[in-house]
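User: I've been trying to design a sequence by hand for this structure and keep getting stuck. Would you show me what you'd pick, starting by listing the structure so we're on the same page?

Assistant: Good idea, let's start from the same input. This is the structure you sent:
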């Protein structure tokens, strides 16, 4: 059981690394291809990969109304999370997007207390306050309201936190391949509907856009590694740990995002970003390490 837990941690950490560096590639891609069209194509490619994997399985879980209903809920949350994150990243830096998305870690126990009556400790409450203070330091400007891009990304953090909680609840009930396939398919369909309503899909899928290396790179890494593999891995391996412990691992995502923003994206981190980011990470670690002591022994939601 210990080896399984270690393997689960290692795989979830690799998923977090891919998500962290994706902020840079996503920011570059949506500068060329409209956000919802990009997400629709990315999720469609990822869903195709997952359904092929499901078709190759010998012992398949039957497709019941229950699994489709639960998968649809997870897919709708993914759609909202990535929509807010992708739209917001157009109006803020990749490093800010990473740090603010990381707030979903402290939001997991808070929302767990709201929806599942999980006990919210003093450490968690303190960590949330510190993380929110970090968000204010990083995003607010003198005589200016919160930056619009940061606020939009924050909405995505709430959706990501809910997705972690729901995944912990449903991943123990169904085969990971089927559940992941359904949720990614639902997210893709919702993305296509949004793209058809708000974007010019014909122009977005023109040869000039498709041959852009930034778009191709983001779609390849995003579809194969950051979506198909990542959400299968999360659905499969989160069964062997709890939602809050998964959140601890996901806390490293802002660090990977900031490092990628500097190394790949050419960004420079301002003092305000560094101080705010440090407070966010400090709040995350306080909430999860001190607030969920003995978390390994808890049953998933």
């Amino acid at each position: 059981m210990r080896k399984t837990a270690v393997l689960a941690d290692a795989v979830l950490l690799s998923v977090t690394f891919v998500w962290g560096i994706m902020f840079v590639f996503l920011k570059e891609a949506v500068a060329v291809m409209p956000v919802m069209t990009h997400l629709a194509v990315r999720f469609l490619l990822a869903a195709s990969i997952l359904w092929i994997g499901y078709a190759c399985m010998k012992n398949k879980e039957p497709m019941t109304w229950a699994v489709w209903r639960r998968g649809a809920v997870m897919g709708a949350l993914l759609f909202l999370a990535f929509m807010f994150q992708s739209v917001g990243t157009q109006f803020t830096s990749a490093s800010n997007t990473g740090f603010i998305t990381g707030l979903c870690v402290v939001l997991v126990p808070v929302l767990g207390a709201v929806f599942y009556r999980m006990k919210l400790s003093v450490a968690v409450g303190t960590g949330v306050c510190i993380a929110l203070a970090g968000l204010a330091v990083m995003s607010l400007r003198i005589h200016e309201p919160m930056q619009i891009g940061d606020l939009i990304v924050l909405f995505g953090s709430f959706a990501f936190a809910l997705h972690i909680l729901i995944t912990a609840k449903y991943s123990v009930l169904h085969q990971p391949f089927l559940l992941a396939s359904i949720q990614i398919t639902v997210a893709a369909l919702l993305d296509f509907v949004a793209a058809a309503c708000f974007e010019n899909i014909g122009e977005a899928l023109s040869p000039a856009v498709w041959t852009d290396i930034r778009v191709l790179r983001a779609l390849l890494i995003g579809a194969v590694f950051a979506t198909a593999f990542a959400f299968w891995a999360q659905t499969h391996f989160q069964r062997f740990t709890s939602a809050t412990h998964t959140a601890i691992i996901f806390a490293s995502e802002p660090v990977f995002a900031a490092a990628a923003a500097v190394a790949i994206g050419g960004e420079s981190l301002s003092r305000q970003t560094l101080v705010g980011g440090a407070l966010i990470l400090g709040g995350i670690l306080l909430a999860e390490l001190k607030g969920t002591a003995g978390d390994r022994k808890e049953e998933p939601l």
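That's my pick for every position. To get oriented when you compare it with your attempt: Confidence is low (pLDDT under 50) at residues 293-301. Residues 2-297 form one domain.
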